[in-house]
């Protein structure tokens, strides 16, 4: 399996023997100037900054030569391993030919070929591709495109969006506006739009004795009530299909997506599928929407699109929506959105090679086997006195830590129990980055059974450390 081969672990780097470029020196230089994302920088007075100098398959190597198994695919982006030789070769070849060109009035074969391939592999009816730079930008494009479609159709009263409780769609202002993360909304509320919130179909929040399918059906009824009141002013409903990732790896039944598609058709609102984190095989199918046989009006893709190599996103939509913008210049209907690096040739070529690996190799079949191994290893945790739930969708699995199992009473956020798991993982060569008190796994597809054993064993030991007092 050429795209999934595991590079030699014997490679060395001379800087590892040089104290001036070791972990301590690089961390000190970093902390003098760099401001990191999603971080209270004061934490790094006690939490180590880890300088990474090389990646090999599922592993990261720091400046002192220590190795870390990447259990979260470096923020869910990496699919086929760090420094994957096949993808790296494609990138190098493109760099020698064309690194970038303005994408207004100009085009190039990597972008054309990638659009053709995305249309081929995504659910039927998604025939147009708009490129952007990252996941949040893709959400911005979809929100604006939905609103602008209705405006062009003479429905300027449609200015609102419906999102799910517990949702997260990115950190630009439009993306935050359709997210339901209390910390962000509290901080940036004066700058944000206010969405209508529909109750999440999250199976963990289901009624006692209720199946995940029954929970989804009940929540669809509540969404219907919301649409009955507000469809006339609503552009679109936006969801993360099957897994609400940053909201705590909340998982739900695919029947919700089937019902959502029907409701959007009935009430004349768009369905935006945020597959940025769950696309490209994470949930067991290439795209999560496939499990509901549902085609959204907009599908947002990023993260795994380039196998973790370069930033790129794409928004796919229908010919019908495209045609609502197609008019003489004087009509003023053109879509207004651009990025300097739109359709970057390097990123497009890397994405094409990533998709070629899916085409050439039995990736999804292998992932099903890995997911089954992960499920077997996690099963004993269901009986743990501080675990309220163990849930899994394909190659995404999560463990819900609680102070009290019977009542599901959570640990106070200020206790930062998840941070203890993270620190334990670093000490034992595993990168885990819990979401609050939810320990999760989303590894690259190049892990094997022994890697899964290491991930789970380290997480279990970290959990014991986290709940010890």
From TrEMBL:
Pyridoxal 5'-phosphate binds at residues 135-136, 274, 339-340. Residues 1-21 are annotated as: Disordered. The modification N6-(pyridoxal phosphate)lysine is found at residue 303. The record marks 38 as: Participates in the substrate recognition with KAPA and in a stacking interaction with the adenine ring of SAM. Substrate binds at residues 75, 168, 303, 338, 433. One of its GO terms (molecular function) is adenosylmethionine-8-amino-7-oxononanoate transaminase activity. Pfam families: Aminotran_3. InterPro entries: Aminotrans_3, Aminotrans_3_PPA_site, BioA, PyrdxlP-dep_Trfase, PyrdxlP-dep_Trfase_major, PyrdxlP-dep_Trfase_small. It comes from the Bacteria. Pathway: Cofactor biosynthesis; biotin biosynthesis; 7,8-diaminononanoate from 8-amino-7-oxononanoate (SAM route): step 1/1. Coiled coil: none annotated. It is found in: Cytoplasm. Keywords: Aminotransferase, Biotin biosynthesis, Cytoplasm, Pyridoxal phosphate, S-adenosyl-L-methionine, Transferase. Gene3D superfamilies: Aspartate Aminotransferase, domain 1, Type I PLP-dependent aspartate aminotransferase-like (Major domain). Residues 1-15 have a biased composition (Basic and acidic residues). SUPFAM superfamilies: PLP-dependent transferases. Transmembrane segments: none annotated. Its main location: cytoplasm. It catalyses: (8S)-8-amino-7-oxononanoate + S-adenosyl-L-methionine = S-adenosyl-4-methylsulfanyl-2-oxobutanoate + (7R,8S)-7,8-diammoniononanoate. Belongs to the class-III pyridoxal-phosphate-dependent aminotransferase family. BioA subfamily. Homodimer. NCBIfam families: bioA (TIGR00508), PRK05964.1 (NF004624), PRK07030.1 (NF005443). Catalyzes the transfer of the alpha-amino group from S-adenosyl-L-methionine (SAM) to 7-keto-8-aminopelargonic acid (KAPA) to form 7,8-diaminopelargonic acid (DAPA). It is the only aminotransferase known to utilize SAM as an amino donor. HAMAP family: BioA. This is Adenosylmethionine-8-amino-7-oxononanoate aminotransferase. It comes from Rhodanobacter soli.
